[in-house]
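Same chain as my last thread, 178 residues:
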Amino acid sequence: MTAAVTQRCLLLSQSLLLRSRSMISKQTPLRTLRGQRHTACGFSRTFSSSTGTLRSEDKVTVHFINRDGEKITTEGKIGDSLLDVVVNKNLDIDGFGACEGTLACSTCHLIFDENIFKQLDPITDEEMDMLDLAYGLTETSRLGCQICLSKSMNGMTVSVPEGVADVRQAADMGSSPS
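reply #2:
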């Protein structure tokens, strides 16, 4: 190999390494020693069994329309993601949040009313990639793990699509003996 080719390969490797480090620090939820993870909503504790009392001004009412049409009404803390609400309130939404909010699946796919959808933060490329795998995708679809509750969302209704795309199920089906 010539010196120019070697130098070019070295620069490309360094560039890829820096880019991958940047992507990891920006995109991947990070686990900490205290059971917290970095999410689109900042640091939050998930899968908690505590039921601390929230002041009414710190809470938002959310109505979920489940796959079977059942309406589930609950409250969440401002700043929590919709995935956090489902998990912390132990809502009966089958398969919801399989990747625990790491943007590795689309099981927390939700459909929003147009007026709420317009208020949401812009969608990231990573979320869009996962939504591409979701069943029942609509113009107002988003992933619940990426939506942080705010006071303006109080009383909103979100719908859980009828189908769910869970790559873990596909992998299990592919590995089962015939």
